[in-house]
Amino acid sequence: VRYLWIVSTNQSEVMSEEPCDVGLYGLAVMGQNFALNMASKGFSVCVGNRSPAKVDLTVQRAKDEGNLPLVGSASPEEFISKLSKPRKVIILVMAGKPVDETIAKLSEYMEEGDIIVDGGNEWYLNSIRRSEELEPKGIHFIGMGISGGEEGARNGPSLMPGGPKEAYDQLEPILTKCAAQVDDGACTGYVGPIGAGNYVKMVHNGIEYGDMQLIAEVYDVLRSIVGMSNDEMSKTFAKWNEGILDSYLIEITYKILAKPDDVTGEGYVVDYVLDKTGSKGTGRWTVQEAAEQSVAAPTLAAALDSRYISSRKEERVAASKVLDGPKETPNVSKFQIIEDLEAALYAAKICSYAQGMGLIKAASDSKDWNIDLSMCAKMWKGGCIIRAKLLDKIQAAFSSNPSLSNLMVDPAFATELNERSMAWRRIITLCVASGVSCPALCASLNYFDSYRRESLPANLTQAQRDFFGGHTYERIDREGPFHCAWTDAHKAIGDISERTAGEKATRD
Hints:
Oligomer: single chain
Strand content: 5-15%
Distance between the termini: 50 Å
Number of strands: 11
Mean pLDDT: 93
Number of helices: 20
Strand order of the largest sheet: 3-2-1-4-5-6-7
Structural class: alpha/beta
């Protein structure tokens, strides 16, 4: 490993003539922290940014944090000139147009065989387009999802790269050493061709949406139905975090609930937070892709819808004055509710992961990406926002059966879901009777109930389609499509195969 020694704090530092192992362009907080992460792991890093002040700040941080091997640059040309060949460039700028502009500036000074890695939350089709645009110059492009926030970027995030395998192989030593580390290795690996890494990160964020909404609904039951104080709720989540619900999101939940307000000095911060949840688009992308791939993802969709409803605060305030909830609510043991909530939350989380994994599998199959679902689970076990004890079991399930049709039918998970089914149903029944919405908990149970049933009422729906649109139907007693002349007004539809051409069955 080559080390570069900083001899001054100006961005145009005079360094040893040894070129840097890797460059990072884009020095918002994530970029700064990931650059320092790589430098702290022994890789020499050159950093660049549109504004020089952030370059100076990052160079100073490297000095303050132990004279890390990190050097600044004053221009795109100087930035590229300080990198060893083939050059390895990671960009961390805002998704969309800024990525295209940054690639254009940097690639002007790059050569055949060089590598550009986009580490932002990017739509996977944009990564595919950029890869194709760089191909004539022979520059490799990798789209890499990064999860873990500021802390993860500095100390070890989950890294999900997708692109040319030969380019990944050159980056692998850096990514493996800088990613979060768990018992069975680094939380990274080769996801697949270009677009695959962005896709897996997108689904990760969709699962994150679902997980957060499920926790919020459980919090609402504890607060609105059980009547717990913030301290009591915090202790309950802390206890749950010692068992099967052990996860980063449960951990931060009990910390959030216990945090005194730092503005007024009275009460707790969470009680002053306006009940409007923002979003940056990855959850919406996930739900859109689920529809595109004909994959049911009701928990993730419910979480997204809940954010949309929350944003209509003024409308909800007005509606609360004219729309009534139940006048009487059930009298249920608080101990029983708390016990059932733990079971319901765990079961619903399994369903949320099942939907996300099902979406990755469908996309991988349709695009020939050959994504390893057990590796996805491994990548998410550390560093990222959805890291959880549950992922050990998910990894084991897909390792033992890579062709598993749905996570819920894995023998271990099937047993756990069946054991918690009645507790789950009691919680949803309680919420409905109490007028407390639980869209994600309910969507997860409906997903479970729909998937486990051999027969669904879809036969009537398909018959209706044939009645009003001549869409045909399949029979249970013989092969082939059929059409029924339901009334005297219905006419023959001619060649049935022509009638059904182009229709994509949702089961495919």
